[in-house]
Amino acid sequence: MEQINKNAALLIIDMQQGIKHPKLGKRNNLQAEENMVSLLTSWRLTKRPVVHIRHVSRSPESVFWPGQSGIEFQDSFIPLPDEHIIEKNVPDAFVATGLERWLHVRGISHLVLVGVVTNNSVEGTARSAGNLGFKTIVVADAAFTFDQRDLNGRIWSAEDVHALSLSNIAADYASICTTAEVINGLQ
């Protein structure tokens, strides 16, 4: 893997308490949080920019509905005072958040995406990042999703949903790498 730009931003997507709710079902990548913490630690040590993205749902049934504990960041992902926080209401972190402008003002053209849900907020954000011209990496083992029921009632495993989503992203929008590859690229 090539060297990671000194100004590359780490975008941590929706790592909030609500994502641990049992109603979301079976998930994949049980080591994803550990990998995200490794990346966050590396970003902080190398003084690269970190953006924490918080989903604020418009649906009262959501695990990210305002006024409940699910909207809070997980303990391992509480932003430091010099780290940027974006709040979004739709899966794509670029929609109506000012993220694109914030990145451009700071001369940031390289993004590394981690978080949840692979086939929702991660994929939506990666698609926009690629379309907007950002050089984007999605870290496959630092993201996860849940089993998904399709319109015919078939349940697809989280592993399959994750793999297909990463394939969608890799087709046109971002490179797909592992935590180890990204950390090695920081040297």
TrEMBL record:
User: Which keywords does this Swiss-Prot/TrEMBL entry list?
Assistant: Hydrolase
Q: Does the keyword Nucleotide-binding apply?
A: no
* Residue intervals of the Isochorismatase-like domain: 8-180
Which InterPro entries would you find in this protein's record? Isochorismatase-like_dom (IPR000868), Isochorismatase-like_hydrls (IPR050272), Isochorismatase-like_sf (IPR036380)
Which GO molecular function annotation, any one, does this entry have? hydrolase activity
Which Pfam families does the record cross-reference, listed alphabetically? Isochorismatase
PANTHER family membership: ISOCHORISMATASE HYDROLASE (PTHR43540:SF1), PEROXYUREIDOACRYLATE/UREIDOACRYLATE AMIDOHYDROLASE-RELATED (PTHR43540)
Q: What is this protein's name?
A: Isochorismatase family protein
Q: Which organism is it from?
A: Glaciimonas soli
